[in-house]
UniProtKB/TrEMBL annotation:
Gene3D superfamilies: 2,3-Dihydroxybiphenyl 1,2-Dioxygenase, domain 1. InterPro entries: Glyas_Bleomycin-R_OHBP_Dase, Glyoxalase-like_dom. This is VOC family protein. PANTHER family: BLL2707 PROTEIN (PTHR40265), GLYOXALASE-LIKE DOMAIN-CONTAINING PROTEIN (PTHR40265:SF1). Residues 3-174 form the Glyoxalase-like domain. The lineage of its organism: Bacteria, Bacillati, Actinomycetota, Actinomycetes, Micrococcales.
């Protein structure tokens, strides 16, 4: 179990403009991701060090986005003005989470221009919608070289998260100490004043720390 990525739902001016603001602040160009046909969303990728990345995601006007929990989550966060939607943990086996949550993981995919395909299984988006402090879980499949963190060289590091919520609640959700996936990322837990979830993320860049 390890921290994989953070997701930022685009703001009212759309995917390109939102991504440009973030990439400019961090000093690294974003990479075009692609469409998630099963979820009715599309994304842009900002690769980070340590096998992490930042995803900026936008909901599409597509029936899939109304049915898929991931599409619903992106739509709701963008409708509220955009911002940090959640964080994701990569695991080797989703079966324990499927058993505990009482439902099956769902497949995800997106294709590259050259025809290669990024594929994965994920679970936990409904939990994130209900309680945005908790991560969703993902298992990557296929060629490890296609992991979004490998899209381009990067010297920007995901340093810390500020989350409105509690370590105890996330530990309960994960079924093991929250420190396990966050061993290289520090977290400041603050009491929720309204909706729980990611309040800010700090990155180490060539220009020094940048908090978004």
């Amino acid at each position: 179990m390890r921290m994989d990525h953070v997701s930022y739902a685009c703001e009212s001016d759309g995917l390109a403009a939102t991504t440009e603001r973030i990439s400019s602040a961090l000093g690294i160009d974003a990479v075009r991701g692609g469409v998630h046909p099963r979820f009715g969303t599309r994304n842009m990728i900002i690769p980070l060090t340590d096998h992490h990345y930042l995803e900026v995601v936008e909901v599409l006007d597509h029936p899939a986005s109304d049915k898929a929990p991931f599409g619903q989550a992106v739509r709701a966060r963008s409708a509220a003005g955009g911002g940090w939607m959640g964080w994701c943990v990569a695991v080797e086996d989703l079966a324990p989470f499927e058993e505990r949550l009482g439902r099956s993981a769902v497949p995800g995919n997106r294709k590259f221009p050259d025809g290669q395909e990024l594929v994965w299984q994920q679970i936990g988006i409904k939990g994130l919608i209900a309680d945005p402090q908790v991560p969703y879980m993902l298992k990557w499949e296929g060629d490890p070289a296609l992991h979004p963190s490998q899209a381009r060289p990067s010297e920007v590091r995901l340093a810390s998260l500020t989350i409105a919520g509690s370590a105890e609640r996330v530990t309960e959700w994960l079924g093991q100490p929250v420190e396990c996936p966050l061993e290289d990322v520090s977290v400041e837990w603050i009491a929720p004043r309204g909706t729980p979830g990611i309040m800010s993320v700090t990155f180490e860049t060539a220009k020094g720390p940048v908090t978004i």
